[in-house]
Every structure is written in structure tokens, then in C-alpha cells.
């Protein structure tokens, strides 16, 4: 029996998590009444976090600041490594999903199209962009330094992949058009099933997380672009791999491993919305701050750290005035101070 064909016993914990997420979904229209520039700032930061985290999960070694610098001047001719190519591709996919989610019906053709977009800059992947795998592949875990931690589980053989993807896509279409279970459970099951098949030669992990964002947006979770789910997964990577493995290696009709994965997936969604809620509440507090202090906080959200000189350049304000506002923000615990002397910097 395939994962998506199993019957799932909905636990009280699953119901509680769904209720909490949906309550936030319903209140987002009120919580998200920020100025367009503040929303844009939240989205920019979340996108950088998503791109950096999702690619690091797969072994890329670029930091948030390196990803930010790369994306600020995105140019296919400027990529110097495979890591940079993968970052550029993931950013393209996320931008496409954020801009066109209503038009991207997640069927086999769209999934293949998104895979092409994901690998559009990857010179070594030209032959299998948007094409199902021709060779066996498997799932590996990677340490923060990029070193492989070993194979986590085996995946579907190439010959079985086309009909399994057809079956999974049909199930997803039926489950979203005539739902018998909550959409968040459907998305959780689709994600683990997609990764169990591992339909493409490369890029499956990244694509699964991009597809999760697409499915959330199509289900009305409009806050998705403003808080990084990928960052939550990276911070819980060991448990992420463990729960996937439990669900994908379980024999027979038992769905205990699948229930464990669904619970973990929903817990990640709760952390995602909690992070956004804190940021929005923080932004609302900003309304009572002086305009320059507000600008400083916005710039510090977009940069890993800034010196006084950096802030002066970004704001165009007088150096002494900047110092006064920065010192007040430090005193109020709005920002933190690091380094010393000429190496002093500030960060969120």
C-alpha cells in the first residue's frame, strides 16, 4: 500500500495543531495590516531565509548574508559554484510560486515545470531538468559542513516512478477538489509521499518544500511568503529526517509513522506562524518609535549586522543622530551590540 492510500487516525493533538494554525490563518487579515513597505521587508527577509535554509538542508554551504548578496545581483553569468546555481534556482522557483500560485495547479506538468525552473541555472543538470529519473537515487542527510551523514532511505525505482507520480497527482487533485480530510493533512501526506517516490534525479528535497509553499498558498494560507517554513525545518533537521524515515519505511497498512510525520509537519507550521506573529507584533510596536529608529530596525532585518557607518550610509542621517538612536535601541533591547572599538556592529 502506498503512503497516500493509508487510512489516518486523526489524533486530538493533530486536531489541536490544525485549530491553532487555522485560527492564525483567520486572523492574518487583521495582523497583516502593515504598511506595504513593511510587508515587503518581511517577505524579503523570509525569502532569503527560505532559500538559504532549503539549500543548506541539501548540503549548500552559503550563509544567509552570502545568499542575500548573491540574490541582490542575480546574474546567471556571475555564478561561481554549484552552490550558487542551486541558490539562484530555488529563488526563481519561490518567486514564481509567490507571484503565480493561483495559476500553478500542482499536477504532473506543473511539477515538472517547477523542477525545470529549480535547476535552470544548474549546468550539470541540463539532461534531466523536468524529467523523471532514469537511475536509482536515494536520500542522504548532510551535516552543516556539507559532509554526507549517510543514506536515510531508499526510493522508488525509475520504472515505477511515472505511474506512482500519476497516482499521487490524481490523489492530490481528488483530495483538494473533494476533501475528506483537512487540507493541511493532505499537504503533509503529499510531501512525504513525493519524497518517498523521489521522482527526479536531483532537487527533490528542495522541490518538495517549494511545493509545500505552493499548496499552502492555494489553500488560503496567505501569510506563507512572510515567514520561512524552510528555516523551521533547518532548525529541526534531525527530527525532520527521522519523521520522514519513520513514515516512509513503515511496512504494511500501519500508519503510525505517517501520523508521527503529520504531527511533526503541523508543529513546524505552528512554529512558522508563531515566528510571523512575533514579527508582526514587533512591527506594530514600531509605530510608536521615531522614524529614524524604525528605519534602523528595518535595515537590520535585511542585513546580518551593521556598523554605525553602514547605518549612516543607508539612512542618510547625521552620524551623531544615528548614534543616539542606536544607543537608545540597544538600551531598550530592540537590537544587540557586538564587537568592540572600530569593529563594533549591531544586529537584531
UniProtKB/TrEMBL annotation:
<feature type="site" description="Important for autoinhibition of adenylyltransferase activity">
    <location>
        <position position="58"/>
    </location>
</feature>
<dbReference type="InterPro" id="IPR036390">
    <property type="entry name" value="WH_DNA-bd_sf"/>
</dbReference>
<protein>
    <recommendedName>
        <fullName>Fido domain-containing protein</fullName>
    </recommendedName>
</protein>
<dbReference type="InterPro" id="IPR040198">
    <property type="entry name" value="Fido_containing"/>
</dbReference>
<feature type="active site">
    <location>
        <position position="198"/>
    </location>
</feature>
<dbReference type="InterPro" id="IPR036388">
    <property type="entry name" value="WH-like_DNA-bd_sf"/>
</dbReference>
<keyword id="KW-0547">Nucleotide-binding</keyword>
<dbReference type="InterPro" id="IPR036597">
    <property type="entry name" value="Fido-like_dom_sf"/>
</dbReference>
<dbReference type="GO" id="GO:0005524">
    <property type="term" value="F:ATP binding"/>
</dbReference>
<feature type="domain" description="Fido">
    <location>
        <begin position="106"/>
        <end position="267"/>
    </location>
</feature>
<feature type="binding site">
    <location>
        <begin position="202"/>
        <end position="209"/>
    </location>
    <ligand>
        <name>ATP</name>
    </ligand>
</feature>
<dbReference type="Pfam" id="PF02661">
    <property type="entry name" value="Fic"/>
</dbReference>
<dbReference type="InterPro" id="IPR003812">
    <property type="entry name" value="Fido"/>
</dbReference>
<keyword id="KW-0067">ATP-binding</keyword>
Amino acid at each position: 500500500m502506498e503512503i497516500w492510500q493509508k487510512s489516518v487516525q486523526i489524533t486530538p493533538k493533530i486536531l489541536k495543531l490544525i485549530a491553532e494554525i487555522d485560527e492564525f490563518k483567520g486572523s492574518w487579515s487583521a495582523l497583516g495590516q502593515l504598511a506595504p513597505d513593511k510587508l515587503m521587508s518581511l517577505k524579503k527577509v523570509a525569502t532569503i531565509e527560505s532559500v538559504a535554509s532549503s539549500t543548506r538542508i541539501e548540503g549548500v554551504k552559503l550563509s544567509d548574508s552570502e545568499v542575500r548578496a548573491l540574490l541582490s545581483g542575480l546574474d546567471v553569468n556571475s555564478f561561481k559554484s554549484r552552490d550558487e546555481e542551486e541558490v539562484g534556482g530555488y529563488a526563481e522557483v519561490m518567486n514564481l510560486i509567490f507571484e503565480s500560485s493561483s495559476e500553478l495547479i500542482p499536477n504532473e506538468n506543473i511539477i515538472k515545470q517547477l523542477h525545470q525552473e529549480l535547476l535552470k541555472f544548474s549546468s550539470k543538470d541540463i539532461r534531466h531538468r523536468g524529467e523523471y529519473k532514469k537511475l536509482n537515487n536515494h536520500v542522504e542527510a548532510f551535516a552543516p559542513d556539507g559532509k554526507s551523514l549517510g543514506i536515510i532511505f531508499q526510493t522508488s525505482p525509475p520504472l515505477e516512478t511515472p505511474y506512482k507520480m500519476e497516482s499521487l497527482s490524481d490523489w492530490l487533485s481528488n483530495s483538494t477538489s473533494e476533501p475528506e480530510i483537512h487540507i493541511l493533512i493532505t499537504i503533509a501526506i503529499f510531501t512525504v509521499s513525493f519524497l518517498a517516490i523521489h521522482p527526479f534525479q536531483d532537487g527533490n528535497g528542495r522541490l518538495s518544500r517549494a511545493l509545500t509553499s505552493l499548496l499552502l498558498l492555494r489553500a488560503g494560507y496567505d501569510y506563507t511568503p512572510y515567514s520561512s517554513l524552510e528555516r523551521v525545518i533547518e532548525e529541526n533537521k534531525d527530527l525532520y529526517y527521522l519523521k520522514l524515515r519513520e513514515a516512509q519505511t513503515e511496512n504494511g497498512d500501519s500508519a503510525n509513522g505517517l501520523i508521527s510525520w503529520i504531527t511533526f509537519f503541523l508543529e513546524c507550521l505552528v512554529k512558522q506562524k508563531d515566528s510571523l506573529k512575533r514579527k508582526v507584533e514587533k512591527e506594530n510596536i514600531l509605530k510608536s518609535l521615531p522614524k529614524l529608529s524604525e528605519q534602523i530596525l528595518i535595515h537590520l532585518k535585511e542585513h546580518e549586522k551593521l556598523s554605525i557607518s553602514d547605518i549612516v550610509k543607508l539612512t542618510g542621517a547625521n552620524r551623531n543622530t544615528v548614534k543616539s538612536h542606536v544607543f537608545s535601541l540597544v538600551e531598550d533591547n530592540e537590537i544587540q551590540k557586538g564587537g568592540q572599538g572600530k569593529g563594533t556592529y549591531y544586529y537584531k
